[in-house]
User: Fold these one by one.
Assistant:
Number 1:
Amino acid sequence: MEKSTIPILGIVVPCYNEEEVILDTSTTLSDILETLSKQGKISFKSFMGFVDDGSSDKTWSAIEGLQKKSKNIRAIKLARNYGHQNALLSGITTFGEHADVLISIDADLQDDVKAIGEMIEKYREGNEIVYGVRNKRDHDSWFKKNSALVFYKMMSLLGVNIVYNHADFRLTSKRVLEALREYKEENLFLRGIFPGMGFRSAEVYYNRDARKAGHSKYPFIKMLGFAWEGVTSFSIKPLRLVTVMGFVVFGASVVLGAYVVFSAYFLQVVHGWASTVLPIYALGGIQLLALGIIGEYLGKIYQEVKRRPRYLIEKQL
């Protein structure tokens, strides 16, 4: 059912050491808000909400300066760096109280802001979640494009419900934000939470642009950690893989045992070091891998039961 009311839009922008781009980001988003409000698609009360995720540069000072000059800027500063997902959650929770619709977007604006208007149209058609999906990644390096492809394929194989080529550029309605408050887990992976909610959704496709300034805050190690966080937060298949490996090794051990007994009674052979050392290496490696995977899940349980706050707000504008 199409929504008839004009929504108040809040654009949530997580920032970490983004002093080089924050002015351009603010100007671009302000222009988008002004254009959409003049077209009658969003309310004139719409705003931008910046989240400083414990930046070590002058990001917060820049945000304070911008906020003094503009009425449509709100901001919070986290007490330390809590990571992208927790920073995004803090912005969604804080600014969601003052908006009918929230759109999250990274400060580098590689995600095309022109898609925001189309997202609003999809929302007014009755969709509660609208995903921004990257159509082309021409400005990404070969490694980044292919590692992203491997990430999405791996998540799909492990049974994680995730939108292909979607990062955290999305629209969420008030209903979705209220439902999100019921998700209390410590280990956040919002890209998996939203598709699993079941609300009516749509997709908007756009071309990914080049970063205007600065450098990516997601190097290979961080990307790898983020992928592992997503897998272990939404799938127990790695644990089941350990069980499968156990059965495979057990079957191989039975076959090898039968061969050893047969050789001892019917063949004149001298067993070398390889037949002794290689199985030890193989079994030792599998055991360590299994313990590592199990330990990862135990660590997550440990984090969950402590129930510590996922973020602390130091300042709010």
Note: The CA atoms of residues 119 and 312 lie 31 Å apart.
Number 2:
Amino acid sequence: MHKRWLIVACTVALLAGCATVTNPVSGERERAVMDESSEVAEGRKAHEQVIKEYTVLANPPLQAYVNEIGQRFARQSHRQQLEWHFTVLDSPEVNAFALPGGYIYVTRGIMAYLDSEADLAAVIGHEIGHVTARHSAQRATRQQVASIGVVAATILGAVVEGVTSIGGAGQMASQASQGVAAGYVASYSRDQESQADRLGAEYLSRVNLDPKKMVDVIGVL
């Protein structure tokens, strides 16, 4: 019996690092490993790595143009209080992405595929949606929960080995859980991508742009 309580105690200890926060978009309470200040800190730290890996496009007028569009959307978003940052990267990749805490990036490669300011706005709106809905924080929380499963399975395997002397049970349980964890936290879920699309369309309408533009850029994204 004490073995089962050992597993429970381990799980509770790992979950203790989570806080309960209100999602700005849904208004629902959710468990999270990152509150807003942690999101901003993580985003700032990751931003330093991004600008080391990529080169910031040396085009001040274009940077100012993209920033102006982004800030206009941010003022209409569910997280107006964040300090938002919008950066064009000098990369031929067709890509746009967001970091937690309000850091948004578009590449010169994706801009070459966009036909209008509204298309660019839709891309930026989609990425803002990921931030406002706290998708990175949700993914980080899932990762920690998945790691709890790895630890619990490892302990459970050790218990099985200790009681029944079945060699290798702990290793098998750990490997199985790690496989599940890797698949679970690999990327944004389809639901999160769809929510970012909906939020991007909503933000387009809030700045008097056609929300149907979101449909035009989904293929590019």
Note: The radius of gyration is 21 Å.
Number 3:
Amino acid sequence: MVAVLPRNAERLYSDDALPDELGWIAWLTPSHQRLLLGELYAAWKGGSTEAELAELLDAWQATAELDQDHEARERLERNRKSTRWASVDEWMQAKGRTA
């Protein structure tokens, strides 16, 4: 998938349609699209390897799939809200340690 970027860079900026390999970007929420672009730019300018860029795109594709699946996203959100994380102090006290 990373090979699509340099090969289609001009088209990504000039065409309204995304290449088929990157069509999942349209599934991202607008805020996630902006975050993807920021992370991709930082990774590219930071000298990330092709494998690192591929991993970044794979992670964002998974996010896009969740953004598109409203039911799964709602389940995750309900689970996140119902989970109470202990503070570090509480956790350390429970383990018999002091902060």
Note: The chain has one domain: 4-94.
Number 4:
Amino acid sequence: MEDLIKKLTDEVGLTEEQAQKTFEALKEYIMAKVPPMMHPMIESFLAENKDSDDPLGDMMKNFGG
């Protein structure tokens, strides 16, 4: 998440607050478009997990349940 916020502030020129609001709006939009059973996978993907060196693998752990 922090990487996306930084990208929005650096490359798009948004303020930190604008970037946070944009991120939340995008997250809400995505969640509304996918089935509820996929919400944990998306939450995991969007969450910042500095302990993991395999975010895609961590996301896939939630796939299907």
Note: The CA atoms of residues 27 and 33 lie 10 Å apart.
